[in-house]
Amino acid sequence: MKSAKLAFGLICLAILAGNIWGMSRWSEARGVYDDICYLRQAHLFQRFGISGLDTNAVGDDDRYFEGKLKEIAFSEWKDPIRWPCHNPMPGGKVVLQYPPGTGFLLALFPEGHQVVPLYIAANLIVGGLALSAIAMARSLPSLIGAGVFGALAIGLMINPAKASYSVAPTMALCAVAGLLTAVWLSRDKRSVLLIALIGLLLGASVNLRLPNALLAAGYFLFLGIPFLWTRSLAIFVQGLAFGAGVLVGMAPTLAAQAINAGSALATTYGSADVVAPAFDLAVFVQYLRDMQIVLIVLAIGATLWLLWAGERHVRQAAFVVAGNLVVNLAFFMTHPIFTPYYVVPITMLSLWTLSFAQVLEPAAAPMAASVRNAAASLGPLPR
Fold first, then answer.
1. Does any domain span residue 2?
2. What is the pLDDT of residue 276?
3. Which residues of 324-362 are buried (b: 16+ CB within 10 A; e: fewer)?
4. C-alpha–C-alpha distance, residues 232 and 221, integer Å
5. Pick from 175-184, 193-202, 266-275, 319-328: least confident
6. Which of 138, 183, 296, 367 is the S-S candidate for 363 at Cβ 3.0 to 4.6 Å?
7. Is the residue at 24 inside a domain?
8. Same-domain pairing of 85 and 218
9. Predicted model pTM
């Protein structure tokens, strides 16, 4: 076990080092619209502090964004209505469409050197948790699972995480939330504060990408359905704490929408991005051809396996993940837009949760489960 842990640890460290080396040579001027829009939000926070939540185009009085548009040869840089990633609001404002979280994180670093430190920080979090899972593994199967998944998770921090500045911090949050979920479910007496913290993290992820709100769906189902059956006060308190945590976590986005769109529940996205669900075979085929299908298959396969063979808290973790996968995959598979990272957050949250649930399981539990399953397959013993 020790030599296997060392081997997996060295593999993960090598991938992490390669990521950091590659990121250190990245440029912040790669000509992508999303990039300069996130950097504009960061610039507003650095200039105005909390008032940077107001992304009205008139706030570009120092011509920062105009300069960024000129750098990428955007021909209509003078007209805010034509600015990429910006949409007109009913009150006459032209505002950024993205929630403020990614810009806030970028604002923590000095202008001109913001993207690389953000990605390195996210990589260190993911790498640290991958090494922790390897170190905590108590059985060979859980060690192999943690080692292989840890290497995969670190590798994904380059591609597809580089496709959008919002993906890397989302993946780091999913890793932390996966660990805390496994810890929460591993305890006989579940902590209200811990589930509130999980809710806070998942709510905070909404500040990075609005669809991250769906990451909380499985938790609401896991807590809500048993409450409807039992009317248990303990389950109600757990659900209330989780919901409150989600609400507090996403408060910056609600505030930004109130400022920019006129209501906390109004979106700053344009009509092209807010569309009714509809199944599109072409979009579905794109997922089949993309790397995301590998993550989907891994998440579904691991969930089904642990629902069948898992013990105690491992099976409960699989129930949370199953609900989350159903809701999230149903949404994205019927969302008539495809990107190479849409289902990455839900698959990574699912796999982190299951990976940590397995390594936190007592070493004797998998063997006991195997014996019971084998005995059950033989049928009742003759008397």
1. no
2. 67
3. bbebbbebbbebeebbbbbbbbbbbbbbbbbbbbbbbbe
4. 15
5. 266-275
6. 138
7. no
8. no
9. 0.90
Decide: 66 and 72 in contact? Cβ < 8 Å. no
**Do the strands 86-88 and 94-96 form a parallel or antiparallel pair, or are they unpaired?**
antiparallel
Report the sign of the C-alpha dihedral through residues 16, 21, 24, 29, in that order: negative
pLDDT, tens only, 13-47: 999 999 999 999 998 878 889 999 999 999 999 99
Distance (Å, whole) CA 125 – CA 254: 27
CB neighbour list of residue 23: distance below 8 Å, 6 or more residues apart = 116, 119, 120, 123, 158
**Which of the residue ranges 262-271, 325-334, 369-378 would you say has the lowest mean pLDDT?**
369-378
Give the Cα separation of 171 and 209 in Å (integer). Answer: 11
* 53 and 180 assigned to the same domain: no
Of the candidates 308, 344, 302, 325, the residue with the CA atom closest to the CA atom of residue 221: 325
**Lowest pLDDT segment from 3-7, 312-316, 344-348:** 312-316
Q: Once rounded to an integer, what is the mean pLDDT over residues 192-197?
A: 96
134-155: burial string, b at 16+ Cβ within 10 Å, e else: bebbbbeebbebbbebbbbbbe
Q: Is the peptide bond before 160 cis (omega within 30 degrees of 0)?
A: yes
**Tokens 């069948």 sit on residue:** 308
337 and 217 belong to one structural domain: yes
The rounded mean pLDDT for the chain is 89
* Same-domain check for residues 231 and 353: yes
- Which tens digits make up the pLDDT trace of 332-365? 888 878 788 899 999 999 999 999 999 998 654 4
Q: Does residue 242 surpass a pLDDT of 80?
A: yes
18: tokens are 């390669």
Are residues 341 and 226 part of one domain? Answer: yes
Contact 101, 207 (CB under 8 A): yes
Cα dihedral sign for 336, 337, 339, 345?
negative
CA 372 → CA 317, 319, 360, 365, 369, distances in Å?
A: 20, 20, 20, 11, 5
Q: What is the pLDDT of residue 98?
A: 95
What is the C-alpha separation between 349 and 179, in angstroms, rounded?
9
Got the DSSP string for 89-131? Answer: -TTS-EEE-S-SHHHHHHHTS-TTS-HHHHHHHHHHHHHHHHH
Cβ contacts of residue 7 below 8 Å, gap of 6+? 147
